[in-house]
Amino acid sequence: MSTIQWYPGHMAKAKKQVQEKLHLVDIVLEIVDARLPLSSRNPILDQIIQQKPRLMILNKADLADAALNAAWIAYFKQHDLPAISIDSQHNHNVQQIEKQAQVILADKIARQHEKGIKNKPIRAICIGIPNVGKSTILNRLVKRNVAITGNHPGVTKKQQWLKAGKSLELLDTPGILWPKFEDPLVGKKLALTGAIKDSLYHADDAALYALAFFKQYFPERLQKRYHLTEQDLTLTDSDLLLKLTTNFGLRADYERASERIILDCRKGKLGRYTLDQVSEVVTHD
Ligand code: G4P
């Protein structure tokens, strides 16, 4: 997991770096975690990207709820943001990135053809908060392992273009933005999925949030994974955490029990899930 600690100075630098890189590209690949299509975005990107074409990429789709992947893609499309879901770890759908970039830039490419400019590569950059899979996607697209040096706000290095398909070139250093810390609920979601450093949150907060979420949406998964009874599921979240701590044989070590629950959620041991509910945003809209 990323080791970046975000201070106001880092944020300003990261913003400036992303701004500078935007001038170099035809399209931005905005990478989010499919389990958190909204909470893993950084709204600052909307401000700085302006009219630059963009493709939303819901990565880690293998860990997210399949129906909600489709619902989120539809939601973004309704908001004029073309979106796709991919699983870059297992190389599923990654080739769609180049195809979609061609579709989004079709008018520009047609204008270039009219002027006799042919085979000009589409230049792109991956941008997103830490741990959403920017480096994995980059490596998949360029079909080799690129050592991503300088992948840190404030560290500058010479930019290089990497061939990432017949018509696509990628900037070798992804743009990194900071996660949103202000809303405690967003913080818990980011913690649970591993998007923020373990030292930045209390494990029991994230674990209690996980228990509440699974009790509400997938109680049967909790029951199965942790051998719970129907009665156990009626306990309050804190009492359930106490019960699990005992069941794990950890006496009163809630911290370790919480860490175990968090790890299970991160590794998909409780099945696929999406923490951001599209229905809530649609109602809000
Ligand atoms: P970043 O550059 O945006 O910071 O993310 P990076 O590619 O390093 O990926 C972060 C973690 O997410 C890695 O796990 C990576 O294997 C995993 N990952 C990336 N894409 C996918 C995907 O589509 N599906 C799944 N299931 N996992 C994906 P890691 O090396 O184990 O790191 P960590 O979890 O220990 O931080």
The figure for the number of domains is 2
Biggest sheet overview: 7 strands, mixed
CATH class of the largest domain: Alpha Beta
List all distinct small molecules, including ions and cofactors, that are bound in this structure.
Answer: guanosine-5',3'-tetraphosphate
Give the H and E element order: HEHEHEHHEHEEEHHHHHH
Compute the average pLDDT: 92
CATH topological fold name of the largest domain: Rossmann fold
Low-confidence stretches: none
Account of the protein in words:
The protein is an alpha/beta fold and 285 residues long. Helix content is 44%, strand content 11%. It contains twelve helices and seven strands. It has helices at residues 8-22, 44-49, 66-78, 96-104, 106-114, 134-142, 184-193, 203-217, 219-226, 237-247, 254-266, 278-284; strands at 27-33, 54-59, 83-85, 122-128, 161-163, 168-171, 175-176. Strands 1, 2, 3, 4, 5, 6 and 7 form a seven-stranded mixed beta sheet that branches. The radius of gyration is 21 Å and the shape is elongated. The site of guanosine-5',3'-tetraphosphate (G4P) has 18 residues, from helix 6.
